[in-house]
Amino acid sequence: MNSPKKANNPWYCWVETIYTLFCFRNMKSLKRAKWMLGIVVFGLVVSGITVWPAVPELKIAVRIVWGDSQPAGVLHSFVLQAIEGLESVEAKHPFMMYAHDWLAFAHIVLAIMFAGAIRDPVRNVWIVQCGLIMCALVPVLAGICIPIRELPLVWFWIDFTFAPAAALPLWIALRDIRREEI
């Protein structure tokens, strides 16, 4: 039973919830590995599909976070500039949006690859390892490209969050697959 001190501590409750979600204590290792890979597949599919309606999504995000106020801060100004740039490119040079199509396609193809690993995680452990390597490379690419593209530094941290978000379930899956190999 949780002590009242632990039950009233929001940090402890959050950590306990995340632990419960990702540990599936009563679940067999291989089944938990498949669940973890399923989480990664879901994230990749959502990321891929949401590439196409980027302008409406960004406008909704601006409305939710900042309302209709004047630009307040670097991130707010940057997002408004990104919306303006995307609208301009869509209107004047629609063929440039083909890059978005390929970005969406890449996410969906990666989702298919991880979905294939769900069928036989032990045999396809290399896909999980490859995914972890990709997660490690996200901050490297962001660190190189963000200054080159003159993006605000805060964007590094936004991009960086995707690495641990995928790496945690992949690491749990890899650990469970290794247990099954023994």
Can you give a write-up of this model?
- This protein is mainly α.
- It has one domain (28-181).
- It has helices at residues 4-7, 10-23, 29-49, 54-66, 74-92, 98-119, 125-148, 154-160, 162-181.
- Number of DSSP strands? 0
Shape: globular
Radius of gyration, Cα only, in angstroms?
20 Å
Number of domains: 1
Percent range of helical residues: over 70%
Structural class: mainly alpha
Q: N-to-C SSE series?
A: HHHHHHHHH
- Major β-sheet, in short? none
Q: Report the end-to-end length measured between terminal Cα atoms.
A: 34 Å
Mean pLDDT over the residues: 87
- Which ranges are low-confidence, i.e. pLDDT below 50, for 5 or more consecutive residues? none
Q: Given the structure, what is the number of helices?
A: 9
Name the beta content range: under 5%
Concise account of the structure shown:
This protein is mainly alpha-helical.
Map the helices and strands.
Layout (H helix, E strand, L loop, with lengths): L3 H4 L2 H14 L5 H21 L4 H13 L7 H19 L5 H22 L5 H24 L5 H7 L1 H20 L1
Helix pairs in contact: 3-6, 3-9, 4-5, 7-8, 7-9
Protein traits:
182 residues; single chain; mainly alpha
